[in-house]
Design brief:
508 residues, binds pyridoxal-5'-phosphate, single chain, alpha/beta
């Protein structure tokens, strides 16, 4: 919020101050003189008392302050005796702080009664304010159900089509595949089984090697292990944070059957180079698109670049169905195999006849109803997320300690979580802990898979880039439900926290 909207000149009539207070909805305005210097804080309590003593509201705020100073008892007596101290807030010097005060100092001023603190410069001119929000917690992500979610779900319930058949399942399959530019779509229960189903449909299993990046969510590698194949962990690129094509080429052996590039944090992997390696060595390419629906590489959407694209509709993803997943492909045979495996391996033309040992990986019509409503809004969601990223960018533009995710040639990334890399010397984990103290949920990047005992034997060599990124990356709250005010609070708090988190050559 603009600072001017909360400033009230002492010469204005009281009723105008009330109207202003009503507009901004913070329960206070800062009363300033003609030079913008802080005089008092006018609270809604002061206003109530003025009305109760029948102070003429067309008189000025300055007159009211004078009247309270002259006859404090009159204003105090409108309350019971025990609350006199509260009744006289307008008569007291306001609680304020210097604009350069550290957050810790501001928090020390906060109390049950004081939640908003004007910040003044050396001349006592109000430049900004600090607002403490109780019961306020900034989550890393939250879903937005602003479309047809409810009516579509209602339709499922009212028509009894709640299981894995129903119009929303087939509508979602058609429309999400079309959105990605793929010929076919297969809905599944979640993103992890989407990956597993893709591997199974490609016939990948025991004795086969599948190359995965070290920096990703564990579901990518788990799916390979569950397929019975051997994952091979390789490093990522410093600019895209995604699977490194050179590392891929080096890791290929006789047994390599597939590669799973992950479009990490909304950034498409280097698909031209990855596809060239895949073609050379005859590898299948399964794209893990869980974090990047809508992202483009050379004008083509992710999920439509390799053999199969796998998506997740988990609650924190760009579009969600609670739990849910999706496979895209333009190969009719692969689509049919995935559909059969998804449905217990049953022969589609002969009920209860099973040709393969399949799974139940189906999505329900209820989930598809939510996902379809979300898909209808995906362009709006991506636009809003890009705006959130811009907000952070402009707030952090002069902050040398933070570098944003990069925009790379031929790629249009999407914003899943706003990501930044911290300059060296900053204690990332301390920063996260301090932010948590201010009720802001920052997240570290994924940990390198190769650091975990259960996966470490799958890494044939060191992965320095993944380690470096993982150690200094943070994800910021990225949620359509947060307001401009909230983002201001987040960015202001984070910038203030840098002074406390070590490093920062310019502080020394
Ligand atoms: C979320 C995610 C998955 C798994 O999706 P689920 O729907 O949670 O099973 C897989 N890979 C990546 C990169 C993800 O971010």
């Amino acid at each position: 919020m603009e600072i001017d909207s909360i400033l009230c000149r002492s010469s204005v009539p009281v009723y105008k101050a009330i109207a202003q207070m009503n507009d901004i909805g913070k329960g206070v305005v800062f009363v300033v003189d003609s030079k913008g210097r802080l005089i008092r804080i006018l609270t809604d309590g002061d206003v109530r008392r003025a009305v109760l003593v029948r102070f003429p509201l067309e008189r000025s705020v300055a007159d009211l302050i004078e009247d309270v100073a002259r006859e404090p008892g009159k204003y105090a007596s409108v309350y019971s005796a025990g609350r006199e101290s509260i009744a006289l807030s307008l008569s007291k010097q306001p609680i304020y702080a210097h604009i350069d005060s550290p957050v810790e100092e501001l928090l020390a001023l906060v109390s049950d009664r004081v939640r908003i603190i004007p910040l003044v410069d050396d001349d006592q001119v109000v430049r900004d304010y600090f607002e403490y929000k109780t019961a306020f917690h900034v989550p890393i992500a939250a879903p937005t159900f602003s479309g047809n979610e409810l009516p579509y779900v209602m339709e499922c319930v009212e028509t009894n089509w709640i299981s894995s058949q129903g119009r929303f399942v087939s509508l979602l399959e058609d429309r999400f595949a079309a959105y990605c530019g793929s010929a076919f779509g297969v809905t599944v229960a979640n993103g992890t089984v989407a990956l597993h189903l893709a591997l199974e449909a490609l016939g990948i299993g025991k004795g086969d090697e599948v190359i995965v990046p070290d920096l990703t969510f564990a579901a990518t590698i788990n799916a390979v292990i569950h397929a019975g194949a051997t994952p091979v962990i390789v490093d990522v690129e410093a600019d895209s944070w995604c699977l490194c094509p050179l590392a891929l080429a080096k890791a290929v052996t006789e047994r390599t059957k597939a590669v799973i590039p992950v479009h990490l944090y909304g950034q498409p992997a280097a698909m031209d180079e990855i596809m060239a390696v895949a073609r050379k060595y005859d590898l299948y390419v399964i794209e893990d698109c869980a974090e990047a629906p809508g992202a483009c590489y050379n004008g083509r959407k992710v999920g439509n670049l390799g053999d199969i694209g796998c998506f997740s509709f988990f609650g924190n993803k760009i579009i969600t169905s609670g739990e849910g997943g999706f496979c895209t492909t333009s190969d009719k045979g692969l689509c049919e195999r995935m559909r059969i495996l998804r449905d217990h391996g049953m022969n589609p033309n002969r009920k209860y006849w099973h040709d393969v040992v399949g799974y139940n990986y189906r999505m329900t019509n209820l989930q598809a109803a939510v996902a379809l409503a979300q898909l209808e809004q995906i362009d709006h969601f991506l636009e809003q997320r890009a705006k959130i990223e811009k907000r952070y960018e402009s707030a952090f533009s002069s902050c040398v300690k933070l570098s944003p995710q990069r925009n790379l040639d031929n790629r249009v990334r999407v914003c899943w979580l706003v990501c930044y890399l911290l300059a060296s010397g900053i204690d990332r984990d301390e920063l996260l802990a301090r932010a948590a103290g201010h009720k802001i949920d920052l997240r570290p990047f994924f940990l390198p898979l190769s650091d975990m005992p259960i996966y470490k034997d799958y890494a044939p060599g060191p992965t320095p880039v993944a380690h470096e990124l993982s150690a200094c990356g943070i994800c910021l709250p990225t949620s359509l439900s947060l307001k401009a005010d909230d983002y201001e609070y987040i960015t202001r708090t984070i910038i203030a926290l840098f002074d406390k988190s070590g490093g920062g050559e310019d502080d020394e």
